[in-house]
Amino acid sequence: MRRRDLLVAGTALLLVRQALAQDRVRPDAQKRRAGERVVTGAGESITFVVDRDAMLVRQNSSLELLRDGFRLVTGAVLSVLGPGGRRELKTTTATIGIRGTGVYLEAEPGRTYVCTCYGEAVLEPLDDPAARETVRTRHHEQPRYIMAKGAPQMVMPAPVRNHSDAELEMLEALVGREPPFKGQGFPQYR
Predict the structure, then answer these.
(1) Could you tell me which residue, 162 or 6, shows the higher pLDDT?
(2) Using CA atoms, how far apart are residues 35 and 13, in angstroms rounded to an integer?
(3) How far apart are CA 117 and CA 14, in angstroms?
(4) How many CB atoms are closer than 10 A to CB 68?
(5) Residue 54 burial class via C-beta count within 10 angstroms: exposed 0-12, middle 13-18, buried 19 and up
(6) CA distances from 154 to 130, 162, 169 (A)
(7) CB burial class (10 A; 0-12, 13-18, 19+) of residue 108?
(8) Bridge partners of 94?
(9) How far, in Å, CA of 66 to CA of 69, rounded?
(10) pLDDT tens digits, residue range 145-186?
(11) Chain-wide mean pLDDT for the chain?
């Protein structure tokens, strides 16, 4: 691991720990269940556990927990989902089918940003299911934008943005696991 990678990872972990200490990122005392809605305001994030899954919901987000996944109405969520059954993550432009995966989503007007941090995901645009794409990653290799109706390309490459390995490590620790990428350093993109 290069020195720069170590510094970036250390800084991200320090920021997460500081946010936890200052109660800006709050691990909920209670577990969440299907049917609940999680809403965050400006400057507020929340972490919580649902069964074998852990989530970090970013500021200005609205998330509905479903029996087999969740619907991100607005905002952003980083989640680590335990092995086992298939889950569906939904936004206004996409349905993402996953199993035992770390994934980051942002619901934006007209598009969804998705980074399959590790694992496998089936990315399906709601407006063109035939444009479905399966992504298999070990460490953030294939982030994508999934576009709304009318876009010339429904699924397209995107940069890695707005989430860190330190956050994934923190979420995996909440459910007693270690991430599969441990010690690899965050990938560098141009």
Answers:
(1) 162
(2) 32
(3) 20
(4) 11
(5) buried
(6) 10, 22, 31
(7) middle
(8) 125
(9) 5
(10) 999 998 999 999 999 999 999 999 999 999 999 888 765 554
(11) 83
Specify which residues 148 forms β-bridges with: none
**Angle 67-68-71 (CA atoms, 0-180°, nearest 5)?**
85
Instruction: Give the 3-state DSSP-derived string for the chain, with helices as H, strands as E and coil as C.
Output: CCHHHHHHHHHHHHHHHHHHHCCCEEECCCCCCCCCEEECCCCCEEEEEECCEEEEECCCCEEEEECCEEEEEEEEEEEECCCCCCEEEECCCEEEEEEEEEEEEEEECCEEEEEEEEEEEEEEECCCHHHCEEEEECCCCCCEEEECCCCCCCEEECCCCCCCHHHHHHHHHHCCCCCCCCCCCCCCCC
Q: What is the pLDDT of residues 86-108, one digit of tens each?
A: 899 999 999 999 987 899 999 99
